[in-house]
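Input sequence (473 aa), recorded before submission:
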Amino acid sequence: MNNVYLAADFGGSSGRIIAGWIENGHLVMEEVHRFGNRQVRLGDHIYWDFPALFEEMKTGLKAAGAKGYKVKSIGVDTWGVDFGLIDRDGQLLGNPVCYRDGRTAGMQKEVFKKIDLKEHYGTTGIQVMDINTLFQLYSMKGSAQLEAAEHLLFMPDLFSYFLTGTANNEYSIASTSELLDADKREWSWETIKSLGLPERIFGKIIMPGSIRGTLRSEIATETGLHDVTIVAVGSHDTASAVAAVPATGTDGHIAFLSSGTWSLLGVELENPILTEEARLAEFTNEGGVGGWIRFLQNITGLWILQRLMAEWKERGEEVTYSELIPAAAQANIGSIIPVADAAFMNPESMEKAICDYCASTSQPVPANKAETARCVFVSLAAKYRDAIAGVNCLLPEPLKRLHIIGGGSQNDLLNQLTADALGIPVWAGPVEATAMGNILVQAMTAGEVADMAELREVVRRSVTPKIFEPHRV
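Predicted structure, token format:
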């Protein structure tokens, strides 16, 4: 098979190597290798096991070569904000720290003693969150590691660096840092200088569709792949996913919900919205493919349900999604929790946190797993309703449709609850939006796809979204 593109897609709990090619105008994909990703607590911090992930990626590349694919390019996408630091000798200065680590506690207060919050949002346009790169870096000021660093590489940049030997920063992933000028699409040097961060570590910003470099000779030999380029796709996984929304240019503003561990809900815009209204509504302006801005809210998503499932499994009460979701559909409980509240970020017991909140607010307390799950789904739908209402206040006309993409788009109950809460149709799919966007940006870079309009046309030919009409009460 010629002109095969490989997507290395890393999520918070697993990673995949997916092969894709265009056949008769349709995108065909095959999962080549899947592997786990876990957070490792060591000493005082929570880390990602980068060497193990890199080795798993190489295993996937070898598997692709063994299948006889003629691989044209590779694109890497991951979650946002986290990074590795490279020293002057090109070596990794320790495993990347996970955004759920506690090192950023109290950093917001310290940062905004030095810079003005409103002016800061007016430049970066990013929702202020403890997990953001800005606060991670500020917590490291004065550390030996930061002093020795020569390059800051976000996770997809880091994987690409060890594939090619070239260090650069892709736009969409850099935009999650809270250190980019949203209008200029370049580093906010004023912010960096004001916070006393080392300017030397911030590298060249490259746009999605740029070629990062070619596969290093030793990796080409090890994997059996040769003359393969590494393409900077929308390397923030949500940027790749949004690129694969099956919308047309006649749909008006394209509204999306990338549904997974996190829920990223928003619209594509030509220019950022940097107003005080947008800041107070907790919207963020992240970079997208084709120079678009992803104007969205970062919402705690199915992480809450994932934690519940893990908790029940640890207690020997394991339940499958195929059992839980139909049971939740029959449950009769309307209690709502504030899914973005710190109480649900990483509690010792998610089930207890939910029950305690419901009890403290005089709402019915979930009595079983089905009611607990329905409480989560109803709460997410309510949060989505509020987010869409916030977007509508900032747009010239209200949104008429929501595209739900990613793994969460398979949850029919949540999709219907969302349509009901919003009062507009929900189009669910594609499930593999991130991999599709990754692969098709590579195809666009190679000239096999002309532009974003044709990219989305390929998506529409390749998948059929499931439509959920709102139930009128």
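Checked by second reader. The first strand starts at residue 4 and ends at 10.
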